């Protein structure tokens, strides 16, 4: 199809034209993927965010009002998906390597190592003391980096149960680590 983005979007919205959607996908997927991968540094996560953008575009096609260029809309949508992904997957264990890559102006002291070891011990004990289902949800989410939906599917429980278990687990950790601030 040699139609403009706005013409394709109009066909998609008014006629539920899947071919118009496919054309828009083929026009933008590669640039969006490169942008997502540049931020996430993970092929699967970049593809997931990209898929979420296009799935949302298709599902919300009747209600979407795009005031700017379609590419600007898609990139802003992708930006928020990537930020949401990072927020949902941000955890100490996953990003520890990133922080350790920064040069330290002063070498850590023995006290620093003891302090970190003590904190890690408190975290490990808190996780070990969690009820089994809470521990399983927490580890799948934070250690393995699964989303709420993926965790719910894997454990065959509702997404709300996953959210509740994560909230309780994080509250326990926050309470136990309160003395270390």
TrEMBL record:
BP-aspect Gene Ontology terms? DNA-templated transcription initiation
Q: Known SUPFAM superfamilies for this protein?
A: Sigma2 domain of RNA polymerase sigma factors, Sigma3 and sigma4 domains of RNA polymerase sigma factors
One matching Pfam family is Sigma70_r2
Annotated RNA polymerase sigma-70 region domain ranges read 24-90
* Keywords recorded for this protein, A-Z: Sigma factor, Transcription, Transcription regulation
The UniProt record lists the RNA polymerase sigma factor 70 region 4 type domain at: 123-173
What InterPro entries is this protein classified in? RNA_pol_sigma-70-like, RNA_pol_sigma-70_dom, RNA_pol_sigma70_bacteroid, RNA_pol_sigma70_r2, RNA_pol_sigma70_r4_t2, RNA_pol_sigma_r2, RNA_pol_sigma_r3/r4-like, WH-like_DNA-bd_sf
Which GO terms of the molecular function aspect are on file?
Answer: DNA binding; sigma factor activity
Describe the family membership recorded for this protein in Swiss-Prot or TrEMBL: Belongs to the sigma-70 factor family. ECF subfamily.
PANTHER family, per database record: RNA POLYMERASE ECF-TYPE SIGMA FACTO, RNA POLYMERASE SIGMA-70 FACTOR ECF SUBFAMILY
Q: What is this protein called?
A: RNA polymerase sigma-70 factor (ECF subfamily)
């Amino acid at each position: 199809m040699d139609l403009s983005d706005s013409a394709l979007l109009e066909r998609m919205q008014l006629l539920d034209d899947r071919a118009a959607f496919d054309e828009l996908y083929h026009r933008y997927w590669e640039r969006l993927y490169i942008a997502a991968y540049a931020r996430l540094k993970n092929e699967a996560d970049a593809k997931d965010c990209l898929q979420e953008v296009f799935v949302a575009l298709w599902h919300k096609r009747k209600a979407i009002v795009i005031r700017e260029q379609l590419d600007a809309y898609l990139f802003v949508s992708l930006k928020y998906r990537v930020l949401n992904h990072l927020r949902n997957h941000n955890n100490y264990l996953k990003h520890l390597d990133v922080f350790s890559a920064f040069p330290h102006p002063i070498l850590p002291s023995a006290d620093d190592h003891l302090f970190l070891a003590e904190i890690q011990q408190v975290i490990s004990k808190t996780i070990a003391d969690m009820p089994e289902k809470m521990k399983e949800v927490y580890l799948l989410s934070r250690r393995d980096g699964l989303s709420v939906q993926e965790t719910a599917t894997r454990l065959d429980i509702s997404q709300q149960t996953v959210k509740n278990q994560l909230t309780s687990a994080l509250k326990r950790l926050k309470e136990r680590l309160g003395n270390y601030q």
